[in-house]
Amino acid sequence: MTDVLLPLLVAVPILAAVLPLAFGLRFENVGWPVAAATTFGMLVVAAGAAWEVFTEGPLYHELGGFPRPVGIELVGDELSTLVVLLVAVVSFTVVLYARTAGPRGNPFYSGYLLLIGGLMGVSLTGDLFNMFVFLEIVGLTTYALVAADRSGEAAYAALKYLFIGTVGASLYLIGVGYAFLATGTLNMIDLQTALADAGYTNTLVRAAFGFIVAGFAIKIALFPVHTWQPDAYQQAPDSVSALISALVSTVAAYALIRVVYTVFTIDFLAANPAITDGVLLLATVSILAGSALAVTQSEIKRMLAYSSVAQFGMIAAAVLIANDTALTGAIIHLIGHGLMKGALFMGAGVLAAAYGVRTLHEYAGLSAKAPYTAGAISVLGLALVGIPPSIGFLGKWYIALGAIEGGHWVVAGVVFLSTLLTLAYVARLLEKFYFTPSGVEHLGGVEPVEPGAPATDGGSTPEHDGENDDGHGSEHVPPAVPVPVNRRPGVSAVMVLLVVLAAVGVVALGFGGSVFESLIDPFVGRVL
Fold first, then answer.
1. CA–CA dist 3, 62 (Å, integer)
2. Tens digits of per-residue pLDDT, 141-153?
3. Calpha distance 347→374 (Å, rounded)
4. What is the residue-averaged pLDDT of the chain?
């Protein structure tokens, strides 16, 4: 009976996506309660499925009772269950965050739930074609959510994502077609043996792998096919940025791991060293390019977006290294990056909503006015660098160690160099928060704060703020000197609390290296 949990995880959010639109004909603002109740239910079901998988073993469900290869199969193993848990936790957290941060409106929450259903489907499907269908659901709903800001820039970013994402989906579908031509099946378990029978050096099999990986490279946003990601993350509403940065590329990277190890298997990689080395080179370049581009950015969301290009390059490199240490690191970093990046975007959203700040320059002195949010962002940033104890450190440590074990010293060196570059842009953030004097720039429509007034999340404004150096008041403030601003409406204590809890969580998970190993080991043992 427990295998029923798998179709529930896919079907419930997709069916619930109709409710905000249907009830919206009679009730206003019914979308958020429906989304909150649904995502909380998903969290409970995901936890139940995880308990079954990690205590009893993988779950399988044949939809409609039709066995493969005719029927569609859902599979919940150790890897997919971890990703499902991540989707459930992040989606529920972002719904709570979006209660105040917005966007509002019943159509938004319909799209939100449809996106969650698509992400669950990608994580649980055991069929290559259905993976394409769910990836398309994810893609189409993401386009709509990015454009939810209704600005011209958001519409452009969504359109760019639509065009490039469609190319990625098309490449993936071509690869699936080649795999079907070579084997006559699309079920992942059946393909495992059918591809071996067809021959790993068969031209159709090689072409299938090449097209599928090229499609995933676009979906994951590896350099140089990453160009949709910075615009989409920057222009989307803050709640949407947090959600898609944590889950969309993460689930695509999960799909890459699933297809490489469950469908093509490690024997394909061993039989085609040129293909393996080529993709590994692409991933390595992505690590360096993403890190270097992130260092040059001053807009916070854009900097975090380029950071993702580097982090996913690291995960892709670990997948191609193909030993148990590197694969363990890839999975840990996949989960850790989703948590860290989603929380960082939520933190940036809190500061933007409170003070209208979006750039490093505008973050000057914010630690005095938003100590909890600034502190949480700082902790999350250091975790992104890989400072122990944090889940960011665990993932990078396993990947670098796996690269050394596999003799890939260049990859290990690039991971180290990327860590230094990450430290460079995180250090700029810390320097602005804590070591740059003065407050926040006075932005249009925001009134200056009175000296000593309560701060956004528990701090207080310095008594000398608003005074000149000689202490004679603040009748004239030179344009070059920033002044503090009042908190804008649109920030709640819950938003701040979620960011702080996320920061505590990524540190706590840094102590769980042995737990992660024990959870992942059964999957790694089966595929390597």
1. 9
2. 999 999 887 788 8
3. 8
4. 89
Q: Judge whether 283 and 317 are in contact, CB under 8 Å.
A: yes
- 3-state helix, strand and coil shares in percent for the chain, rounded to the nearest 5: 75, 5, 25
pLDDT of residue 474: 44
Q: DSSP strand E in 333-379: where? A: none
User: Within 10 Å of residue 473's Cβ, how many Cβ atoms?
Assistant: 9
Count how many residues are written for the chain. Answer: 528
Question: Mean pLDDT across the stretch 256-269?
Answer: 96
In whole angstroms, give the CA distance from residue 375 to residue 382. 11
Tell which wins on pLDDT, 509 or 475.
509
Residue 56, classified by CB atoms within 10 Å of its CB into exposed (0-12), middle (13-18) or buried (19+), is exposed
Confidence of residue 470 (pLDDT cuts 50, 70, 90): very low
| 155 in Cβ contact with 237 (< 8 Å) | no
Tell me the pLDDT band of 63, cut-offs 50, 70 and 90. confident
pLDDT of residue 460: 47
Q: ∠189-194-200 over CA atoms, to 5°?
A: 115
Q: Would you put residue 387 in left (φ > 0), alpha (ψ -120 to 50) or beta? A: beta
Distances (CA, A) of 257 to 79, 120, 373, 428: 9, 16, 34, 34
Give 485's strand partners: 448
Between helix 238-258 and helix 78-101 the angle, nearest 10°, is: 170
Question: Which pLDDT score, from 0 to 100, does residue 442 have?
Answer: 42
* pLDDT score, position 486: 53
DSSP secondary-structure letter at 225? S
Q: Amino acid letter at 469? A: D
Contacts of 270 (CB under 8 A, 6+ apart): none
Residue 483, SS3 per DSSP:
coil
Closest by CA to 436, choosing from 375, 359, 376, 360, is: 360
Q: Whole-prediction pTM value?
A: 0.90
Between the alpha carbon of residue 34 and those of residues 8, 118, 401, the distances in Å are: 16, 17, 45
Q: How many helices (H) and strands (E) does the chain have?
A: 20, 2
The whole-number average pLDDT for the span 499-516 is 95
Q: Distance between CA 393 and CA 506 in Å, rounded?
A: 10
Whether residue 304 contacts residue 344, with contact meaning beta carbons closer than 8 Å, is answered with: yes
Domain ranges of the chain: 4-439+491-525
Joined together, the tokens standing for residue 484 give 């503090």
pLDDT of residue 507: 96
DSSP 454: B
Contact 502, 346 (CB under 8 A): yes
55, burial (CB in 10 Å: exposed 0-12, middle 13-18, buried 19+): exposed
Cβ contact 49:170 at 8 Å:
no
Helix axes 238-258, 203-220, angle to 10 degrees: 160
Q: Which H or E run includes 75?
A: strand 73-76
Distance between CA atoms of 304 and 285, rounded to whole angstroms?
18
Q: Give the DSSP H or E segment for 60.
A: strand 59-62
